[in-house]
Amino acid sequence: HMPLQSGSNRILAQMRRSYRTDRYLGIIERVREAIPHSQITTDIIVGFPGESEEDFQATLDLCTEARFSAAYTYQYSKRPGTPAATMPDQVAPEVVGERYTRLHALQEAISLSVNKESIGRTMQVLVTEHEGRRDAERARMSGRTEDFRLAHFSFDIENIARPGDVVTVKIADAAPHFLSGEGGEVRRTRGGDA
């Protein structure tokens, strides 16, 4: 997880962040060279005081370039006592909302594209107790992949994994927020024993 906050160097300076976009993208590049299948998530704030359409477009452009597997996106809101609360050029709430919607739509498309790249791969999934709200009705289990993405999978009734166990899952489908596939070998763990 690498918080970005904004793709605009001007806004990053206003936020008093110590990095700029070139350094940020350089770190992502080095991570992906060292760990080719790594997945990177981020945090983004939309509508920080003084954010122009050009600044916002820089954020969209950086998201497209970085290809985050997920982004935790937030609409800026004034927090009493913070320097940003008294800054001039507060962005109108309707502009913030419209930008947030655009960012959300872009990131959904990127997340889906990134997740589709995993179709056909076999991944190790750590079974969790409660992840998917529809697990029972769909006769599936859920867990987290080794790169922390949510994965739903079918299971063998004769060899049910327990929370804490690791299941080998062949990824067959993807959505913006999860992967799905067919469960296979179950590796019993001390976590599952507990």
Tell me what you see in this structure.
There is one protein chain. The protein is an alpha/beta fold and 194 residues long. The protein contains five helices and seven strands, in the order ααβαβαβββββα. It has helices at 9-14, 21-34, 53-66, 93-116, 190-193; strands at residues 41-46, 70-75, 122-127, 141-145, 150-154, 166-175, 178-187. The strands form two sheets. The protein has a five-stranded mixed barrel with strand order 3-4-5-7-6. β1 (41-46), α3 and β2 (70-75) form a beta-alpha-beta unit. The longest helix is centred in the middle third of the chain and has 24 residues, at 93-116. The two termini are 29 Å apart. 28% of the residues are buried. The model has no long low-confidence stretch (mean pLDDT 93).
Features:
five-stranded mixed β-barrel, elongated, two-stranded parallel ribbon, 7 strands, 194 residues, alpha/beta
**Helical content band:** 25-40%
Could you report the average pLDDT, rounded to the nearest whole number?
93
Q: What is the overall number of helices? A: 5
Q: How far apart, in Å, are the first and last alpha carbons?
A: 29 Å
Low-confidence segments: none
Strand content: 15-25%
SS-derived structural category: alpha/beta
Main sheet summary: 5 strands, mixed, barrel
The string of secondary-structure elements, in order, is HHEHEHEEEEEH
Major sheet: order of its strands?
Answer: 3-4-5-7-6
User: How large, in whole angstroms, is the Cα Rg?
Assistant: 20 Å
- What's the overall geometry? elongated
Give the strand tally: 7
